[in-house]
Amino acid sequence: MSGKGLKHVDSHSAIHEAALEEARELNGILGKLVNDNQMDKALEIAYIAVEHWETRTLRHADAEEEGLYKELVEESPELKDEVIALTRDHDILRFLVKEIKQSLETEGFNRGVLEMLHTLVHVDAFHNQEEERILPHH
């Protein structure tokens, strides 16, 4: 069974919003560091951003896939396609985080990393909106 927080729309939404707001703040800090040409510090913060995505968002995504999503489909088989789409969003987030990590390790920090971090925020915001649209039917 999934935790009560994952099934309760308001608390689930709060989990998403907090993680997304933290990611936006990290991106803002990175943007300022890039403008100030502090690339060494930007590299440090970029690694913190990757860790944030791994521990906050992707770990949450794993929990959703292992519990909530399976339960949703069992209880409401008509949601199967939507759950597949939500899982695909998670896969896109995982792919982007992996790309960012590889880029940081091979090339260091650059504007492309910041662009991918901004993309993560946009994909996750869309994903959260779609998930919250489906959850009330649950």
Question: How does this model look, in words?
Answer:
This is Hemerythrin-like domain-containing protein. The chain is mainly α and 138 residues long. It has five helices and no strands. α3 packs antiparallel against α4 and α4 packs antiparallel against α5. The N terminus is likely disordered.
Main sheet record: none
Query: How many distinct domains?
Result: 1
Uncertain spans: 1-5
The percent of residues in helical segments reads over 70%
What descriptive keywords fit this protein?
single chain; 138 residues; mainly alpha; 5 helices; 87% helix; elongated; disordered N terminus; Hemerythrin-like domain-containing protein
What's the short version?
The protein is mainly alpha-helical and 138 residues long. The chain contains five helices and no strands.
Question: What does the secondary structure layout of this molecule look like, with pairings?
Answer:
Elements: H1 4-7, H2 9-35, H3 39-75, H4 80-107, H5 111-134
